[in-house]
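User: Predict the full complex structure for these chains.
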Amino acid sequence: MSSKIRIGIAGYGNLGRGVQAAISKNQDMELVGVYSRRDPQSLELAQPAARYSVDDLAKHVDDIDVLILCGGSKSDLPEQGPQLAALFNTVDSFDTHARIPEYYESVDAPAKAAGKTALISAGWDPGMFSINRVYGEALLPDGETYTFWGRGLSQGHSDAVRRVPGVAAGVQYTIPSQEAIEQVRAGLRPSLSTREKHQRECFVVLENGADENNVRQEIVSMEHYFDQYDTTVHFVDAQTLATEHSDMPHGGFVIRSGNTSDSQKQVIEYSLALGSNPEFTSSVLVAYARAVHRMNRAGITGAQTVFDVAPGLLSPRSAAQLRADML
Amino acid sequence: MSSKIRIGIAGYGNLGRGVQAAISKNQDMELVGVYSRRDPQSLELAQPAARYSVDDLAKHVDDIDVLILCGGSKSDLPEQGPQLAALFNTVDSFDTHARIPEYYESVDAPAKAAGKTALISAGWDPGMFSINRVYGEALLPDGETYTFWGRGLSQGHSDAVRRVPGVAAGVQYTIPSQEAIEQVRAGLRPSLSTREKHQRECFVVLENGADENNVRQEIVSMEHYFDQYDTTVHFVDAQTLATEHSDMPHGGFVIRSGNTSDSQKQVIEYSLALGSNPEFTSSVLVAYARAVHRMNRAGITGAQTVFDVAPGLLSPRSAAQLRADML
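Assistant: Here is the predicted structure of the two-chain assembly.
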């Protein structure tokens, strides 16, 4: 019997690919296989691994310690999360903030009934940013929390741009306001409007015959997505888009600014500068798979969030090693 | 019976004063009293509270949910920690890094025997910085962790300066190298010598007749404390020292830089800019008192560190509230 933590990957898009890369960076883990709804033989893996159909999962319940769900939050996870939590310990990155309580309940019941542990909504936001919002508020109860995103590629906003008539291709970057960040860092606890916190920048390839001004106007006035922001639209050719805008960088800042007494200000800042958003999210999922494996062995079952996981459970080091080397 | 968490403070120096201020910022807590080795009636409290002798503690075991130990790591805590963990749930800021494993054992046995929970070594380093070192390493296993301290007043180095013959008074600031930080932020994973990471700056009041050059030479060549650093010594008068150098600011940076694949770099940064080092440390102790109270009620006893405490336990919000509002 293997002493490594045996991981399965359900879904092989950007996240699944990132999870495969992250497993190879963790010596105490091994990849059992990639499970896809596509024909497994058609999957082109970044590194060699066993390829299976998702229909094979039920036959592999004894071979997998933790299954990492790499599907999307819109349609994949609401269906797969509850189903697979009845068979496996799971980790996912469900990120529709408003629906988290409902998703939590839907996963908690089957996981508890099966004695499994299901960690939902891991990643960086929700995930590491959420943890830092909680730490910040608890440590400085008299204070304000600010979250800034970017500079980074937003998938949702890029999709919105691409739906505009006349747009052949395009991407959108979210840009945090440096001025707003400096006010927050200075402990001024400013009130900031949506427009004052972030700007948006689009790089768009037009369809033949489309009009720049019409397309720009459609984008900048789009409700919810762009109308509350200052948005810049750049028109580029397909070649430029492919060479200069194919990476998926992202990141941001969670800043808590507060007072511990009338005269003393304190500022806590957590920031991420990510070369690849999906690869970092995947790394987080893999670290939480280690924690989930341990929690399940300790009898902690049902749905869990990053708020429920002690930091030491993420580390391959023992508690005694952590105390000696990391405290 | 009170529904608030009932806190006792053992020791009333800078930390004890900070804990008293922090309790007043947390609506779910109340201060039972301040316990001192000094004559309680001689204690001048920043805010009104009951004053007791430490000898009264044993009589108050039923009145206190968590006792926060505000003594020093050199002589107070090694003695008080094990003794008081046999009577109370405790939180302390034991910060002699090299002796933490030994201190942990000395507290763990009496706490376990008494069914009490003892959280050791809370604060920011050890404490929040330690947590971020563990998260960083777990999320980016192929990477390097860098800790920078400052700009801030170092108590230990200030004490060392004041022991130099000819020095009437003085303080020492630790200053992180901006150049080194920028290299780390850029994901270059540099090898940095002690001298390249921090500089030291001293403000010194001379005794009558003392020689500037002699004193400067004594300071900058002092083994361990200064000889491995570039140190600047400024001579000031007593008035300037009192007006410009009586605050206790501190802070620093924990940066993890790593690769999730050959082509992708990721950087995680946690930083603190603290107006008052002792007040922030105190705020951390108070938040962990809430966690200790909950852990003890859940049957988790013995010595604990910040690595063992799930983030959600620090928050006054319920787990369901946290999921709905903070994830």
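The mean pLDDT of chain B is 96.
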